[in-house]
């Protein structure tokens, strides 16, 4: 068991929520009451919330249809539009002058975009996309830096019923091509380049490279000029974003779509080689993005400045940089650049300069900030902060305590939110002004969410570790894997006979009913809060001409949570510089986030008699731990020694 997990198991500190503020859900009693409403009338309660929180063009006639489970249908009969919910209704309510997006660039430039302006931009972009032939149901890939145009592009898709698929800007051209092809995208929206560590990196050439083979569905590329870097363009195919928008009217009637109309596809890693396109639909996703802003963050759109540091290439950026805050009519901050640039005080400087009140980041960022030293936050006035959130991986109690003490001055609630790309929004999280917190625990399921820890047979376990499941559907649940119904059923529902959603995480529930997430139980790594499949990296490695076989495992990493260790068997002789070449190869196949930290070579890989790679043994070797597996049956004992050598 890793040290982080052991210390989580021994953690027994508890902190009361801050007093003196009436939160959205103000007390544990109110939480219990809301939970009781769900137990008494599950469908009715969801229906009431959907009626109150969303703007409907046609009211829904049925809350939840379970007939085709695990393909659930929410809010049947209802018609609505996401961009209308995020923009028009706030403008209509007289909030047009309110800032929707505050954007800061790495060089310190600031843009403030009001709801009126954002609506006009989204309409122009929607009109421009229509003129390029994009219709409801068409897929649009967005490959962009963290700039407001990325949010405009997402909202513009939703305005005309197109399905967006955002691909993280650090993914390679090959990873981009796979996603464009799998989604069958008609349009790619990209930028010339973005900023990173004081320099401009190019994005557009990756799109050109991706489109140079296959991708026959793509008709056009919309190009945002942002980085100022020279990029080649293909006449007829590539269209300048600003030129295209400028000639369009600032009005575009939002297309009302059915509740279950697809809103977006987001690719994420699973335990097999091919990334899966997680499908989210309109009404349920939007409802939960708004409700969790209220419940987990106590978001007050009239006063708060909300900053979620996640890139829009991840689900956290979708739900909490764009849809959640905007659906509430509040202000969201976007920062484009490295959080420690030009120095480790940048994050805290942004918090001070813009008076950020709710701050949401990942444990890996917190650990990097701890390492930089307490003098950095000490330089800035952080008194505007009132809620601190974390997401993406288990937070070790030491990092939690630092966040609480040094940033929160022991006065602010720490909201540790457990959820996944598949869940659309938070599932387990404290209510900041109601739930007592324990360092390292995501605390309790949100109202309406039926989370449990079960054994292999689906029986509830209390006290011991088990598998984390969700026993009831929820509105923002994934509706499938794009183009692969079978994989959806097999991955999430097969294990417990279509009754429970299987999350792929291990967890434990303590005597107070608190959830302690213990990490993935499948072959998925969590590197700096980014999900990566071991098989994905293995297939990248074996696609190199010198590699015969490869196995990839995670190993504990102080900063990144998990590091990547690759064990490689070569086809021929070892050649000088091979480890570096293999690293570069993986980066070109997937992206920089998948670069192995450690590559080890051997004549063969340790396997069981049935031929399975002994992954637990490899994990022990990678972590430098004592070997607990029985290795007496291994044909070649020297392999272990070879694998223990670092190159
Ligand atoms: C939102 C997001 C999902 C996986 C998930 C789990 C891990 C996320 C966590 C957490 C412990 C938390 N995870 N939040 N583990 N505590 N608060 O991160 O989505 O990229 O799909 O990753 O991340 O292992 O299964 P995604």
From TrEMBL:
Alphabetic keyword roster: Acetylation, ATP-binding, Ligase, Magnesium, Metal-binding, Nucleotide-binding
Sites binding CoA sit at 196-199, 316, 528
Q: Which GO terms describe its biological process?
A: acetyl-CoA biosynthetic process from acetate
Ranges where the AMP-dependent synthetase/ligase domain occurs: 90-482
Enumerate the CDD domains for this protein. Answer: ACS (cd05966)
Which GO molecular function annotations are given, in alphabetical order? Answer: acetate-CoA ligase activity; AMP binding; ATP binding; metal ion binding
Q: Which GO terms describe its cellular component?
A: cytosol
PROSITE patterns given for it?
A: AMP_BINDING (PS00455)
AMP-binding enzyme C-terminal domain spans which residues? Answer: 536-612
Extract the SUPFAM superfamilies matched here.
Acetyl-CoA synthetase-like
Residues bound to ATP are: 392-394, 416-421, 505, 520, 531
List, for all copies, the residue spans of the domain called Acetyl-coenzyme A synthetase N-terminal.
Answer: 31-86
* This protein's record includes keyword Metal-binding: yes
User: Needs which cofactor?
Assistant: Mg(2+)
The entry's function note states: Catalyzes the conversion of acetate into acetyl-CoA (AcCoA), an essential intermediate at the junction of anabolic and catabolic pathways. AcsA undergoes a two-step reaction. In the first half reaction, AcsA combines acetate with ATP to form acetyl-adenylate (AcAMP) intermediate. In the second half reaction, it can then transfer the acetyl group from AcAMP to the sulfhydryl group of CoA, forming the product AcCoA.
Tell me the protein's name: Acetyl-coenzyme A synthetase
Q: Which organism is it from?
A: Mariprofundus erugo
Gene name of the encoded protein: acs
